[in-house]
Amino acid sequence: MAQVILLGTGAALCDATREQTYLVARGARSAILIDCGGSPAQRLSKAGIALESIDHVILTHHHPDHIYGLSVFLLALWLAGRQKVLRLYGLAETLRAARGMMRAFEWERWLKFGFFPVEFHRIAKDGHHAVISTPDFSVHTTTVQHLLPTLAVRVESRVSGKVIVYSSDTEMCDAVPEFARGADILFHEATTLVQPTRGHSTARQAGAQAQRAGVKKLVLVHLPPRGDPKRFHAAAKQGFSRQVVVGKDFAAFEF
Ligand SMILES: [Zn+2]
C-alpha cells in the first residue's frame, strides 16, 4: 500500500500550525521526498519514515520555501550513516540553486570525509517527462505557471494503479487539469482564499481545477497563515462536486 504524508502544508509565510509545504510518497520498499522544507529529518521521523528509505528527492522549483531544508537534510543523512547514493531531480535552474546552496556550506569539504554520493538529474523544461521508475512508483512531471520555472509531479503506485498529483506553486493554467486528468487525489496549492495573486491559486480556483481534471479528491496545501479551514473548504467546494480536504501537517492519504 502506498501513502502520501504531508510533512508541511503552509505557504512561504507559515504559522504555528503549518510548516512550508512538502510531502513524501512512501511505498513498500522506498520513499520519494517531494520538495524539502525546513526540518525534513525531524518531520520524517515523526511520520515514522526511516531516513534510509529516501532514495529520491524531487525539487519542484527554487523558491526558498521549497528547497531550503535540503542542506540540513543531506547533513542529517550523512550523520545517520548513509553510504548509498541519493538522487536529486529538478529543472536546470533548480539544481543550480541547490548546488549553490550546498556550496555556501562548503560541502566539497564534506566530500573529503566520506560523504555519500549525490546524483543530480536534470528534468527538461517543456512537456511531460518520466523521471523516476521504481518497483513502487512511476513518477512524471510537467511544467506549470509560476513566478519561476516550476514542475507539477504525478506519482502512480505500481501496486494499486492509483495516481496522486501535486500542483506545486501555480496560477490557473491548462497544464494542471491535463496532467491530473482522472487522478485519485490532487494536492493543489491555495495560497489565498478567493483573491488571486500572481503566480499562485486561490482555494476557489483549486476547486475549479479539480473539477476540470475530474479527480476524485482535492487536498488543499500551501495555505496562508491563520487561514480558516472552513472558509478554504467552502471556497474550493464552490467549484468542485467531490471531496475537498484542507491539508494538515502529517495528514496521510493512501493511494
Ligand atoms: Zn514558489
Which structural class do the helices and strands define?
Answer: alpha/beta
Low-pLDDT stretches: none
CATH class: Alpha Beta
Could you say which overall geometry the principal axes of the C-alpha atoms support? globular
Q: How are helices and strands ordered from N to C?
A: EEEHEHHEHHEEEEEHEHEHEE
Q: What name goes with the CATH superfamily? A: Ribonuclease Z/Hydroxyacylglutathione hydrolase-like
Descriptive keywords:
alpha/beta, binds zinc ion, globular, seven-stranded mixed beta sheet, Metallo-beta-lactamase, Chain A, 255 residues, 14 strands
Question: Would you mind describing this structure in some detail?
Answer:
With 255 residues, the protein is of the alpha/beta class. It is built from eight helices and 14 strands. The protein has a single domain, classed as Ribonuclease Z/Hydroxyacylglutathione hydrolase-like (Metallo-beta-lactamase, Chain A, 4-Layer Sandwich), CATH 3.60.15.10. It has helices at 40-46, 64-67, 70-79, 92-104, 107-111, 175-179, 203-213, 229-237; strands spanning 3-8, 22-26, 31-34, 54-58, 86-90, 118-122, 129-133, 137-144, 150-157, 163-166, 185-189, 217-221, 243-246, 252-254. α7 packs across α8 (229-237). The longest helix is centred in the middle third of the chain and has 13 residues, at 92-104. The termini are close together. It binds zinc ion. Zinc ion binds at residues 61, 63, 146, 169.
